[in-house]
Design a protein that fits this description.
two-stranded antiparallel ribbon; alpha/beta; single chain; 6-stranded mixed sheet
């Protein structure tokens, strides 16, 4: 049987973006830089990011803080899309209307492309890796894919990506060890950010 080793997947939402989402704000750039400083001594083997400017800029700022020569890769499946569209019988009755309205608002009209990309993301980013050395990878993405990866790690129902929030430049770490279930090491951690840069991207009522 081929050897396999543990994968550590670091997942981060992009930093705070401008109103038109074409670039990071000054606060967003600082969030990204501070996250990069936090990861500086982590043996990150590659940085993957989505193609949109806010994710690409965040990834570049993080990348500047990492070891020289770390690959920086833009990948469509690390982008911003609806990963799963729930069927009418899947959602809890008391919240189905609200959740369906959210999905409809977020969809770009193509109900198949997002799920296809989500399946590719799971195949590319999750599970143990080949060989006998642990691998550490960073994915700089958006709230929907971050939620999808956390849902998958918990083996939760597919619709359960809905309702999972992620702060800008927060860090989630998932460990995939051979022969064991995926483990959430940390979720939405913002300890690398000063108080005034935490919780951006979260609804005000959820900030504590």
């Amino acid at each position: 049987m081929p050897a396999s080793a543990t994968r550590y997947l670091y997942v981060a939402r992009h930093g705070e973006a401008s109103a038109d989402e074409t670039e990071l704000t000054e606060r967003g750039r600082l969030q990204a830089t501070l996250l990069g400083e936090r990861l500086r001594d982590t043996p990150v083997s590659a940085v993957h990011h989505g193609p949109l400017p806010r994710a690409a800029q965040t990834a570049r700022l993080i990348h500047e803080q990492l070891r020289p020569g770390t690959p920086l890769r833009v990948e469509e499946h690390a982008g911003d899309y609806v990963p799963y569209v729930p069927g009418p019988q899947e959602l809890p009755e008391d919240s189905a209307d609200r959740l369906n309205a959210f999905v409809e608002q977020a969809l770009d009209g193509d109900r198949t492309r997002g799920p296809e990309l989500a399946r590719t993301a799971l195949a590319r980013f999750t599970g143990p890796v080949g060989g006998d050395a642990p691998r550490h990878e960073l994915v700089v993405t958006h709230a929907f894919l971050a939620a999808w990866l956390v849902r998958d790690a918990l083996d939760a129902p597919a619709w359960r990506w809905l309702g999972l929030n992620h702060a800008h430049a927060a860090l989630t770490v998932i460990r995939y060890t051979p022969g064991r279930p995926a483990a959430l090491v940390m979720v939405n951690d913002t300890s690398h950010l000063p108080p005034d840069l935490r919780w951006t991207g979260f609804p005000p009522e959820l900030r504590v």
